[in-house]
Design a protein that fits this description.
Distance between the termini: 58 Å
Number of domains: 2
CATH class of the largest domain: Alpha Beta
Strand order of the largest sheet: 3-2-1-8-7-6-5-4
Order of helices and strands: EHEHHHEHEHEHEHEHEHHEEH
Shape: globular
CATH superfamily of the largest domain: Aldolase class I
Strand content: 5-15%
Structural class: alpha/beta
Helix content: 25-40%
Number of strands: 10
Oligomer: single chain
CATH topology of the largest domain: TIM Barrel
Radius of gyration: 20 Å
């Protein structure tokens, strides 16, 4: 099944809602088909491709989220979808007549998904600052869906520039509030319409609220894509269970959205306090291995990872090959001061 551009494209985001059990993941895909969804979406990362296994304070979640007090590494170790499942999950979705695609979180994930003929790529909200990742993903020539949960206008412009730089203009921007669950009062749905005006892109919604009101509102405002977390049963638990819709709720949402196809905040790029704190989850540059003074920076010892306290990833390609001004410890934020002045 291909992406039908004549109707709102409804995506059931499976995320971590499989409890590391392949049979639950397969059952979830089959249930998504019965709800009327068009697609299921995976997330392709491991704890090691998305962050560092570090006990440093930077890597402890403390941004007022439902995951506070946990290490990033431990959360993603629990939440990731095993890579060896991907081929089977894509096959199950195809047999059900569903589009299956994923959010890659590094180049190796893109390469895996390319081997499975992934038809669409999604850039997660917290990865919108990872310009090298966006460029590499967009270079594959597939439709790009980009969430904007922690994005200021400049972040969106850079992400779009990265896509267009490699000749990819098939871009859908999703309005997203990166709170889990997200309060309806922070939805600012008028901003979704503004995306189309400001950036000449298709628009949609990535929704983390607990109900189905926002998806219906988004249709009235021109959404072409709606993404919502989906779980067989919230009693399964897991990192994303509390803000996921179960089978009955997702079915009701699909029905309401389809009926809306035959309410609103203000158009502002200012982030709320919660969204600002969420920027801690965006990518930045960190020391991935101990580095000696004078040693050259490489793709191995400097990485773009979560969290977002280090240097902006847009400087990544510029610093490769430069030399360290002093000894640098794994897990340290990478800053301009770390670069040896060649003059």
């Amino acid at each position: 099944m291909h992406w039908d551009r004549d109707q709102v494209f409804i995506i059931a985001e499976i995320s971590a809602n499989h409890q590391q059990d392949l049979s639950i993941a397969i059952e979830t895909i089959r249930a998504a088909k019965k709800t009327g969804a068009n697609a299921v979406k995976l997330q392709t990362y491991t704890a090691d491709t998305i962050t560092l296994d570090s006990d440093k304070n930077d890597f402890l979640i403390q941004q007022g989220t439902i995951w506070d007090g946990r290490k990033l590494y431990d959360l993603y170790q629990e939440a990731y979808t095993p890579w060896e499942w991907h081929e089977e999950l894509f096959a199950v979705a195809k047999a059900e007549g569903l589009v299956c695609f994923s959010s890659p979180f590094d180049k190796t994930a893109v390469d895996l998904l390319e081997s499975l003929n992934c038809p669409i790529y999604k850039i997660a909200s917290f990865e919108i600052t990872d310009i090298p990742l966006i460029e590499y993903t967009a270079s594959k020539g597939k439709p790009m869906i980009i969430s904007t949960g922690i994005a200021e206008r400049e972040d969106i412009e850079r992400a779009l520039e990265a896509c267009r730089k490699v000749g990819n203009n098939d871009i859908t921007l999703l309005k997203c509030t990166s709170s889990y669950p997200a309060p309806i009062a922070e939805a600012n749905m008028r901003l979704m319409q503004q995306f189309a005006t400001d950036f000449n892109v298709k628009i949609g919604l990535s929704d983390h609220t607990l109900g189905i009101t926002l998806p219906v509102v988004s249709v009235a405002l021109g959404a072409t894509v709606i993404e919502k977390h989906f779980i067989l049963d919230r009693t399964l638990g897991g990192p994303d269970a509390s803000f996921s819709l179960d089978v009955a709720e997702f079915t009701a949402m699909v029905t309401a959205v389809r009926d809306a196809e035959k309410s609103l905040g203000t158009a502002t790029y200012e982030l709320t306090e919660k969204q600002q704190s969420g920027k801690a989850f965006s990518r930045s540059l960190y020391v991935a291995e101990d580095i000696q003074a004078g040693e050259a920076f490489t793709e191995k010892n400097i990485r773009s990872v979560r969290p977002g306290f280090g240097m902006h990833p847009r400087f990544y390609n510029e610093i490769l090959g430069e030399k360290a001004a002093q000894n640098l410890e794994k897990g340290s934020r990478f800053t301009h001061d770390a670069i040896l002045d060649a003059e």
